[in-house]
Amino acid sequence: LLGQILDQWFESEPLKATLATDAVIGAMASPHTPGSGYVLLHHVMGELEGRRGAWGYVAGGMGALSQAIARAATARGAHIFTEKAVCHVLLGRDRRAQGVVLQDGTEVRSKLVLSNASPQITFLELIPQEQLPKDFVQRIRQVDTRSPVTKINVAVDRLPSFLAAPNARDGQPLPHHQCSIHLNCENTHLLHQAFTEATHGHPSNRPMIELCIPSALDPGLAPQDCHVVSLFTQYTPSVLADGHSWDEQARNAYADRVFDCIEDYAPGFKASVIGRDILTPPDLERIFGLPSGNIFHGGMSLDQLYFARPAPSYSGYRSPVPGLYLCGSGAHPGGGVMGAAGRNAAQVALKDFRHL
After folding, report:
1. Which CATH class is domain 85-144+299-354?
2. Which of 46, 143, 177, 311 could form a disulfide bond with 216, CB atoms 3.0-4.6 angstroms apart?
3. How far is it, in rounded angstroms, from Cα 192 to Cα 27?
4. Is 330 strand, coil or helix?
5. How far, in Å, CA of 195 to CA of 190, rounded?
């Protein structure tokens, strides 16, 4: 249990709760859930520019990272097609993957196919079920994909000014504006309470909020004196209680609750908002293909990691379909902006390619 680990090392409840957010981020779990300690470890492993456990902003926004990878690929001769939905994986008579078929009917032939879509989309939608072992299909169907995350993107016409650290007179960003700001994290009990509400199908009354202001470090993201604020919030269930749907009213009611909480810490925040984009778990699934809105393509619990990700005997990136590889967050070692699954899958695919 993460709670026990934090209790061994720290006394301050706000510090313990703030650290605990990285143990439950993206997970339908509380700091008291067995295995939550690993999720914290997952978020602090690795390094950035020689600093172990450090995180950073991407200049130009997260999309700039995708563009950098795309430029590196095209420089090596790759051809990239966007807005071309894949209908299914093309299989030969020997049941090997031979390419993909697009929704417009176009066939793209290939000796190997790598999918960074979720295991659910890859194996339950793009491959005929009769081509896969029944126990494998059952395992993929049973993967816990519950997600507590609602992402809210906000445009504001001035920096938030927090009661704990008011803004300078010139309105310029202060050091805390350039960090990750954790709200509603005074103690771990608050996080557990928020989790409990979501398990009963109700969005948390006092949600956990991680607030970032990337434009405080990268002014090009917003017009002068304006800023973009990224709110990573939980807990919101994928399926609401009593058959209610995440309609516009439910979305806005939850976002209003989040903004009310921020207002308590930074009076004037609500008046500074000039636009907001609310992405609930069903929105994240519909737009980005995240199963149940899960940012990791599946829970990072110990029963769904290592040799069991995405299924026992298939953690080595190869799939039951020869020539088809899984290289996304649903593969070992899981989610996060680190590229480990993709690099490992590429190494395996290259090794197999040499023998074709």
Report:
1. alpha beta
2. 177
3. 12
4. coil
5. 9
